[in-house]
Structures are given as structure tokens and as C-alpha cells.
Amino acid sequence: MQLEIFGKDIRVSDQQKEKIEVKLGKFDRFFGDEARGEVKIQPEGDQVRAEITIKIRRHFYRAEADAPDSISAVEQAINKLERQIRKQKSRMKKQKKEYAYMRDFFANEEFAEPEAEPQMEMDIIRRKSFQIDPMTADEAIIQMEMLGHSFLLYLSEENQKVALVYKRNDGNYGLIEPEY
After folding, report:
1. DSSP string computed for the chain
2. How high is the pLDDT of residue 167?
3. Which of 26, 42, 109, 117 would give a disulfide with 8, using CB separation of 3.0 to 4.6 Å?
4. How many C-beta atoms surround the C-beta of residue 37 within 10 A?
């Protein structure tokens, strides 16, 4: 896996980078050289936040964690990633073609699903279609707040492309502009 490790408003030493690479090495056997990983470390109050994103083909795996130091935060984020993958294992098995790169993972008994975690079947229980109107990001935020939603999909007046605004956990707003 190709890894990019960087700090935002914090310096990540070469020694820390080596430790992180070793810890993320466990994902190499699942994802191989085809995957691209990104680790972002940044201060968050008196804690350090580690965000790990792994991209392989069209799939993204992402986890973040806060801890007193960067290595602990990375370890916690790695544990979250493993739990996410383990939790979705049966779902991925059903779509063998899409997740062919995980073949070794599916065969590995070391990651057998723990009995304590109930198997959740994720079904789409509601479908909704609606017309998206052109508006600015500020207008979309106002509309989202008026509807009481945590996100809103809209057509950007700037570039006539679909965009999404969402409310972040810290109370601020985020904007997603997909490239297609």
C-alpha cells in the first residue's frame, strides 16, 4: 500500500512515520500495492486526532480517533477500520466482483466475526427522489437548516454540478463537490 503520512499544524517525525507504516502494514495483505493510504495527524484541543483514509479502486475506508498522543490515536483509528471491515465482511462477500481484492481477507479465519457483535442486515427501507434546484452554498445551508436535515444535496449555481452541504460534529458546515 502506498502511504502518505502528514501532520496539520503538527510535525510528524520520521520515527513516528515508521511506527505508523509498520502498524498500517497489516492492511497490506488485504489491499496490496493497489491501495493508497493517507494518514493525517492534527492537534484537537489537548488531544491529537488521527484520520486514516484508504482508497482502493472505487472504495474508501476511513476512520478517525482522538488520543493524548499521535501513535495511540493511530492505533485507535486502525482498530476502528478493522471493526468496520469485519462488520461489513459478509456484505462484501456477497459482492465478490466488487471486492475481489479482499479475497485473502474473506478466507482468513483470524478475522472471523465475533459472536458478541450481532449481524446487521442493511436494507434500503426508503427511496426518495426529488428535483434539485440551483443555489449557492449559503442558500443550501439555510435550506438545510430550515428543513432540519443534517445534509442537503443541491445544484451549484457556480458550476452547474451537484454538490452537498452537511453539518459537521463541531457545529460548522462542510461542502462536498464530487468530480465526475
Report:
1. -EEEEEESSS---HHHHHHHHHHHGGGHHHHGGG-EEEEEEEEETTEEEEEEEEEETTEEEEEEEEESSHHHHHHHHHHHHHHHHHHTHHHHHHTTTTTGGGHHHHH-GGGPPPTTSPPPP---------PPPEE-HHHHHHHHHHHT-SEEEEEETTTS-EEEEEE-TTS-EEEE----
2. 93
3. 42
4. 21
Mean pLDDT of the chain: 83
Alpha-carbon gap, residue 38 to 175, rounded angstroms: 20
Q: What residues form DSSP beta bridges with 63?
A: 52
Tell me: pLDDT of 13 over 70. yes
Banded model confidence at residue 92, pLDDT cuts 50, 70, 90: low
Domains of the chain and any CATH numbers:
2-111 (3.30.160.100), 134-176 (3.30.505.50)
Residue with grid cell 452547474, as numbered in its chain: 160
10: closest CA among 38, 57, 49?
49
Q: Are 49 and 29 in contact (CB under 8 A)?
A: no
pLDDT digits (tens, 9 = 90+) for 158-170: 999 999 999 998 8
